[in-house]
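so ive been stuck on this for like two days lol. basically i have the seq below and the ligand is pyridoxal-5'-phosphate, smiles is in there too. i just want the complex predicted, nothing fancy, no docking runs or whatever. if the output looks off dont worry ill sanity check it later, just need somthing to start from for the group meeting slides
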Amino acid sequence: MNITITKTANSKHKDIDFENIPFGKYTSDHMFVMDYADGAWGNFRIIPYQGLLLDPQSKALQYCQCIFEGMKATMGLDGVPTLLRPNLNIERFNLSAERMCMPVVPSDIFLAALKAITLSEIDWIPRAEGCALYLRPTMIATESSLGVTPSDSYIFYIYAAPVQPYFNKPVKLVTEQTLIRAVPGGTGEAKTGGNYAGSLLAGKLAKEKGFDQIIWLENPAFTKIQEAGMMNLFFVIGDTVLTPKLSGAVLKGTTRTYFIDILKEKNIAVEVRDIYIDEIMEASKNGTLKEAFGAGTAAVVSHIAEITHGDLRMVLPEDGDKISTMLFNEINGLRAGTIADKRNWLVPVK
Ligand SMILES: Cc1ncc(COP(=O)(O)O)c(C=O)c1O
């Protein structure tokens, strides 16, 4: 695959304080771009980070035919950047593509593009442990036509953003019993912009009431737990870790997959099944609920301090972070190179 490279004449690198990089604030100097036309991907290029010229009638803008991924490149102790299980992101991207009637990106092209942009932006990978270069592969439909039909042309691009560790205080969650994020058969399993736009109102209303995020419940009964905000959920009841089964409406989180695999490997009981809010409230009442946490690329783990469901409020034990901390340390250590990669999850970028 031949990638042409055009370097920027105006690097932003010197203007960034790498000791203080708020999540998502800065983008790096270059982006990878390729075009889809006449049934094939081509015109592979790395160019200075810049705006896109889109027709106002393009299908991405009018009908939200667009998808994205989120992943991190980190710097190993040997100075070689690594990606953690990029195939999980590539597979999920292509599932999103199929659901949104978009062309898939062959995994060899995708991986080559990820490596090319990581190497091009190697100076943008923050070196401190827990920091990373966040990569955002994106595909948008570019055809201009009013008909609600799949586009015949697309742009795929990957841009990069240096990020610090995302430390957040334990979060207060509230279940949502009116608005819904996704239903089985809908687009909830795809990483497509409309799912996020559709979740904004519930998030805003929850914030106004003092909560950090929503727990989405499956309608019509609003009892089965789906996920929370931009993370998958885990609960520790007794000695067992529970996480909701993918119902067709829940995003298949990569962090969720790492955690399930690590728990199984360590012989910690893990149940992937339908989980109902009532059983979590009951476990909290009878003292068997030890931990609850969210899993996602940005923070890796978000400890949950409280969950409110209707008139009921449950408060999680303050010291309830044993399993979540172990999982967090495994992933962070693996990325930083301080924990050996026995599972061959890291892909070196050379
Ligand atoms: C809706 C939703 N659920 C879960 C996740 C967690 O997925 P991952 O672990 O791949 O970041 C994300 C984040 O991308 C998300 O947007």
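The first strand starts at residue 4 and ends at 5. The domain at 171-336 is CATH 3.20.10.10 (D-amino Acid Aminotransferase; Chain A, domain 2).
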